[in-house]
Amino acid sequence: MTLALEMFAISPATGKANLSVAQEALLAGKAAWLNEAHKAGLAVIPTIAISRAAWDALQRERRQHDSRLRTHWVATLFRLVGRDGVPPQLVVRTAAPSHSSGLMQGRSGLPAPQSEAEAVDPARPLARAIADAFESYPDVTEPERQIVIVQAMAEGELRLFLSRDANTGALGPAASNGSPFGPFPGGAAKLCEALDGLAGRNLACLVSVEGDVVRLLSARPANATAAAELEAAVDRVDRRSWTPREAVAHIDPSRLQQLLHPRLKAPETSNVLASGLGVSPGAASGIIVFTTEDAARMKARGRHCILVVTETGPTDIEGMRAATGILTARGGMTSHAGVVARITGKPCVAGVRSLSINLSELTCRIGEREFRMGDRITIDGSDGSVYLGALPLAQPHIGGAMGKLLGWSDASREVQVRANAETVEAVTTALSFGAEGIGLARSEHMFFSRERMVALRRMILSEDAADREKALEGLVRFQTDDYSAIFTAMQGRPVTVRLFDPPLHEFLPRTDDDIEETAQSLGLPVRTLKLRLERIAETNPMLGHRGVRLAITYPEILKMQIEALCAGVRSASGRQAEPVVLEVMVPFVSTVSEVVEIKRQVFDIIDRAGLPAAAREKFQFGTMIELPRAALRAGEIAEHVDFFSFGTNDLTQTTYGISRDDAPAFLSAYQRKGLYDFDPFVTLDQKGVGEMIAIAIERGKRVNPALKIGICGEHAGDPASLRFFAGLAVDYVSCSPYRVPVARLTLAQ
């Protein structure tokens, strides 16, 4: 395209613009919207555009006393002149792809050039304004993408409005940023409807009201709440400007989280005390408490509280459920606090390195300030911020629009979405968000209450097989009832249960008070308990006596769990017509021999358990792939299982050689220095861990084409990771209940 064609009319005062494809490609920002509006026959103020290349060429030509391009420029300016032949005053505006604070504001009231030479003379108002507009573009904007528009000065009253309400999504005209808002002529509503159909997004519109005529001067994208975007998307489908598929494609899945949790009304006006990792979304405010007992007391009194601890463990579960939010000094996305908070829907900020706690004094320091129990703070689990005092919160609103959008997304989605859940409460939440099964029920998480923790600790601390079998009797009763209730709630949907996988350090007492209380509950002298704890202590418990290794060394634990599962299946089957769909998977395997041994023991029990025929027929046996060796030897493992489920948390940990609990201490430094682009425990590392998964799937399916593939790590709720999984031969993903809507929408896209 010649430089002469890079100065052209977008909406001439008379006639049509008739832009070429190349000219339209130059347009950005408000220029693009004005062009679309003019093509649609809407009233648009006369507007022309010039590229930076064309303007620079005009200036070179001026210095060389040439006039070939200038003649074309003057002819373009004349397209702003109406039928009366009187040149109007002019306005110069930038038209950038995105808004930037440094861009020149519209410069109006400029006199039309009195001669051809004045049209390019930088000492004259029009040319000076054009030059200033180009100079205001930030360096990051490519010069070939820089354009300036020149408009005829509007004669009517200038008004600003939004094409849709930023909070409700209702079609405008709607007030913008609290600006004065009075009645508009009917043309404004028609303009909003037409622009919305063209743009498919909320626009801030500057118009000229001339009697009953509303003429568009400028339009730029405007922010809207997630709820407003959702309502607008559904309304566009109802108005037939979008198809359901287009509505699904246009919504940012990560913004759905805002609709499921409370959020801060005005975070930008508040001072941040400290920052950590936002590991469970939503905002919460309340008084500071430091213990599970105090959190329970506050809840009983109807008061909101924030549980502030160094890190959480299984003994803190009741306090975490009682608290409105959780704040920890240590941990990250896959820490105990993060995992449990996401399951229960509680906001959580973890890894706040400036947080220190003095339990004896019931005080803590956050940054430079000291706080006592009873002081108020606010946390935002979406971005990891901690604020002083109780800030006002906006409560979530889940309307029919979300249900419609997710229903449309299900129509175009091929990968199933399950949930990680092991309580009836979590299962019910997951089902309400559209989960199609349970992809990970962590057996050991069923013991996160004080009474059950005593039973689990009695089993772990048993001295011999006889003691262990006695301790297991109590666990069987708990597990049978739990499994039966979950199977009943799921009504024939698949439930994948992971065999016991308790890293011992997460379940054993640590503090002196906790050790003393545990000794008393077990009927042991404190000294005896301490000796047993020393004997089973592990240097690196995350790579120690856990998962399949526990089942092989203590087969009575495996026997107890499978018998409890079978009892749960029989119990639930007696109450429902749908067959129970039970899937058992083995965690932390590294060799095919481990899988073969556990499978033999499991089927010995299953075949003698008296399961209903339909449930027995649907029973499946699989393994988790969490270790690099298992991924590499996936072919030989696949011969003996019905499915693989990739535990991406541990697979990331073992592939990188990074402890997920200790990673926050240095990963932020890696990201600041540009060594890592992202936290691999939040967004899947596609090049390393992703390739490991792809290799395992390919090798597994080559041997066993019917092999079912699942993903059950926290990455299954991360939009960027889900897009990668969608490109693999994956049958289902499983994430925490509150991330199920995000997964449904992302996978549809």
Backbone CA Rg: 32 Å
Q: Please estimate the helix content.
A: 40-55%
The number of helical runs is 30
**How many individual β-strands?**
30
* Spans where pLDDT lies below 50 across 5 or more residues: none
Terminal Cα span: 36 Å
What is the strand arrangement across the widest sheet?
Answer: 11-21-20-13-14-15-16-12
Major β-sheet profile: 8 strands, mixed
What overall form do the CA principal axes indicate? elongated
Percentage beta strand: 15-25%
Structural class comes to alpha/beta
Average pLDDT across residues?
89
Describe the structure.
The chain has an eight-stranded mixed sheet. Strands 23-24-25-26-27-28-29-30 form an eight-stranded parallel beta barrel, surrounded by five helices. The mean pLDDT is 89. The protein contains 30 helices and 30 strands. The longest helix is centred in the middle third of the chain and has 26 residues, at 465-490. The chain is an alpha/beta fold. It is elongated.
